[in-house]
């Protein structure tokens, strides 16, 4: 995008215009993540920390890193909580962000780790290469997800008791 600006001498020049929010340009958020890093999530019920490992799922980790770094998950709500299975989040409360990220898919990673309790994984549709922004933490040993292509990229290292206490009132059918 560009807009015309009047320079001091009265001449017109095109000045590139950057979007106010970098999250509105998913294709530009492609920074390579560090090999390992931790992310602290603050919830109304306490904090939990996720250790992320790029060698587990490099494409997923790069996407997660860029989303976290640019504040995508800030002020989000857990919208799917299934006791014994998963807790899921990753839909922006901003409709404009939801719209631009809805089709910003990344390729699937090879499943190198199992979907064990406390592991974080990108959600996807029932077809290949449909991961965008939604993630979940496994409440149980969900090893059946491994064969379905769900590649864990990190694990809760502090505060799993906080994750266990996330409100499950709306279950599998929340109003997203």
Provide the fold topology.
Layout: E1 2-6, E2 12-16, E3 36-43, E4 46-53, H1 58-69, E5 80-82, E6 86-89, H2 95-101, E7 119-122, E8 135-138, E9 152-158, H3 160-164
Antiparallel strand pairs: 1-2, 3-4, 4-9, 5-6, 6-8, 7-8, 7-9
What can be said about this structure in brief?
This protein has 176 residues and is of the alpha+beta class.
Quick one: overall form? globular
Intertermini distance = 32 Å
Strand order of the largest sheet: 3-4-9-7-8-6-5
Low-confidence stretches: 1-13
The helicity comes to 10-25%
Q: What percentage of the residues does DSSP assign to strands (E)?
A: 25-35%
Major beta-sheet overview: 7 strands, antiparallel
Please count the helical segments.
Answer: 3
Strand tally = 9
> Measured on Cα atoms, how large is the radius of gyration?
19 Å
Q: If you average the pLDDT, what whole number results? A: 89
Query: What series of H and E elements makes up the topology?
Result: EEEEHEEHEEEH
């Amino acid at each position: 995008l560009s807009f015309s600006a009047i320079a001091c001498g009265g001449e017109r020049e095109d000045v590139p215009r950057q979007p106010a929010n970098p999250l509105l340009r998913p294709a530009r958020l492609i920074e390579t993540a560090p090999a390992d890093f931790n992310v602290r999530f603050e919830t109304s019920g306490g904090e939990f920390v996720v250790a992320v490992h790029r060698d587990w799922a490099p494409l997923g980790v790069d996407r997660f890193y860029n989303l976290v770094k640019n504040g995508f998950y800030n002020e989000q709500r857990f919208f799917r909580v299934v006791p014994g299975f998963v807790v899921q989040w990753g839909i922006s409360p901003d409709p404009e962000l939801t719209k631009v990220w809805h089709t910003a898919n990344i390729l699937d990673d090879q499943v190198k780790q199992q979907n064990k309790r406390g592991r974080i994984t990108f959600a996807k549709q029932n077809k290949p290469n449909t991961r965008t922004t939604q993630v979940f933490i496994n409440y149980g040993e969900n090893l059946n997800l491994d064969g379905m292509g769900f590649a864990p990229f990190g694990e809760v290292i502090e505060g799993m008791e906080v994750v266990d206490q996330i409100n499950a009132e709306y279950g599998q059918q929340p109003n997203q």
